[in-house]
Amino acid sequence: ETAMTQSPxxxxxxxxxxxxxxxxxxxxINSNLAWYQQxxxxxxxxxxxxxxxxxxxxxxxxxGGGSGTEFTLTIISLQSEDFAxxxxxxxxxxxxxxxxxxxxxxx
Amino acid sequence: QVHLVESGGxxxxxxxxxxxxxxxxxxxxxxxxxxxxxxxxxxxxxWVAFIRYDGNYNxxxxxLKGRFTVSRDNSKNTLYLQMNSLRAEDTAVYYCAKDWGYxxxxxxxxxxxxxxxxxxxxx
Lengths: 107, 123
Description:
Helix content of chain A: under 10%
Strand content of chain B: over 45%
Oligomer: heterodimer
Strand content of chain A: over 45%
Shape of chain B: globular
Number of strands of chain A: 11
Distance between the termini of chain A: 35 Å
Helix content of chain B: under 10%
Number of helices of chain B: 0
Largest sheet of chain B: 7 strands, mixed
Number of helices of chain A: 0
Number of strands of chain B: 11
Order of helices and strands of chain A: EEEEEEEEEEE
Order of helices and strands of chain B: EEEEEEEEEEE
Largest interface: A-B, 22 and 24 residues
């Protein structure tokens, strides 16, 4: 199984600032990585796929990077609606696996 | 637009069974793979199972093999998850999610999600 490790578990950032979230795979997954955002009481929403491609309707302030085993999700100019939990997910190997999530909270 | 609606959740006794359904609309259901993903209360996301567009190929999270079975009825645009020998640790919100891949064997990422249905395993 490909283990996905996200860091930090919680990230406190002020609105308008930049947030960088990390995701590490236990083995190479090329660029087969997606990021999701989940707000309280809601279903997850796809943000990024193929490590760096924004999904339809996702604002340009969200960007993804990395390949192999190290990945990042960067959000610039944080808006109030961006404070949520973010998950990475690999689709290179079975079983598909998620990271444990990073909670992005208002500082 | 894509719409996924799960149903079938509720309270189940340990050792019991439950079948979840996911009604799909707004896309050509028979051409897309589908997944089940669950989330225990206050916890993260856990992938459960995948079924190919034609129902002839599937994958499961290793620890669930033999207890959970994913199936689909393309004539009814509906996905199912049969859960047997349920345990307290199976308590979770169960989401169905559409796979990105069109007419493809490989499961990819999840581009649309339902609202989820809560299964509580408790006596």
